[in-house]
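README: folding subset

This subset contains proteins for which both the sequence and a predicted structure token string are available. Records are stored as plain text. Below is the entry for Gibberellin regulated protein (97 residues), shown exactly as it appears on disk.
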Amino acid sequence: MANCIRRNALFFLTLLFLLSVSNLVQAARGGGKLKPQQCNSKCSYRCSATSHKKPCMFFCLKCCKKCLCVPPGTFGNKQTCPCYNNWKTKEGRPKCP
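--- output ---
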């Protein structure tokens, strides 16, 4: 009986570990939940308030395809997409609009 309980506990801990690793991998990849085909509509809204639509769309789409996430709204809120927020240019400036 005790052996069965230990085996069940080990199985549960292994399952919990695998779920944690899966979440970490997803976060490292970008953590986004978007599908690549959703990037165009999300970036269109994200870039709707800027006067520099072409470069905004170019970089937003590039960031969305890598991170599978676009922050809500037309400005700010980057903390909701860590990959999008942390991707920087060589000069250390934000790459994603």
